[in-house]
């Protein structure tokens, strides 16, 4: 789950006119959220953090997969025959 810092929200119009502000928010907070029609639409993150998040996601997928395999082990064994 992602916690959104309202201080890092910028309208798409402001982001268009002042992208350096968006970059500064990312430098200071790690992320910036660009709103479109007052709804969070785009997430800008520090590039170095993107890889960290991908690794965490892969670990989550692996743990979920293991749990599902264990939960449905009997079904998989029947299908394997």
Largest sheet: 3 strands, mixed
The helix/strand order is EHHEEHH
CATH C-level label of the largest domain:
Alpha Beta
Computed structural class:
alpha+beta
CATH fold name of the largest domain: YefM-like fold
What's the helix count? 4
Shape: elongated
Quick rundown:
With 81 residues, this protein is an alpha+beta fold.
Summarize the structure in words:
The protein has 81 residues and is α+β, with helices and mostly antiparallel strands. The protein folds into 2 domains: 1-45, YefM-like fold (3-Layer(aba) Sandwich); 47-81. 62% of the residues lie in helices and 20% in strands. The chain has 4 helices and 3 strands. The chain has helices at 12-17, 19-29, 47-71, 73-80; strands at residues 9-11, 31-36, 39-45. Strands 1-2-3 form a 3-stranded mixed β-sheet. Strand 2 and strand 3 (39-45) form a beta hairpin. The longest helix has 25 residues, at 47-71. It is elongated and about 60 Å long. The protein starts with 8 loop residues before the first strand and ends with a helix. The model has no long low-confidence stretch (mean pLDDT 83).
Search tags:
3-stranded mixed beta sheet, 4 helices, alpha+beta, 81 residues, elongated, YefM-like fold
Secondary-structure blueprint:
Layout: E1 9-11, H1 12-17, H2 19-29, E2 31-36, E3 39-45, H3 47-71, H4 73-80
Parallel strand pairs: 1-2
Antiparallel strand pairs: 2-3
